[in-house]
Amino acid sequence: MTTQIFVNLPVNDLKQSIEFFTHLGFQFNPQFTDETATCMIVSETIFVMLLTHEKFKTFTPKAICDAKQSTEVLVCLSAESREKIDEMVRKAIAAGGTTHSEPQDHGFMYAHGFQDLDGHIWELMYMEPSAIN
Fold first, then answer.
1. CATH number at residue 88
2. pTM of the predicted model, to two decimals?
């Protein structure tokens, strides 16, 4: 069985978060979507559970971090190209997100990212295939 990853993120407004990520081109699994949560499909093996604060609290006894003030996790996704990264960052900004840093161009590797509506940081990275070997 292939290992899958399910990243769980608390969101202030589930409907707005779904609209934001839909604008970026993501789809959602209706089987795992209700008024408290949704399952965002990133790839065949990567999923992001967007959970209302009330739902998220049922999974942890700890306080929920305000991602606009503190960073608990950085989500980094690989991209097909530099252009795809720039396109997604543009879409994120148009949908109400923000950037938190300038693009980083290391020649063989390119990275940029955005903050979603709740302040979670999404890094996007492209690496030249020849640099991986």
1. 3.10.180.10
2. 0.89
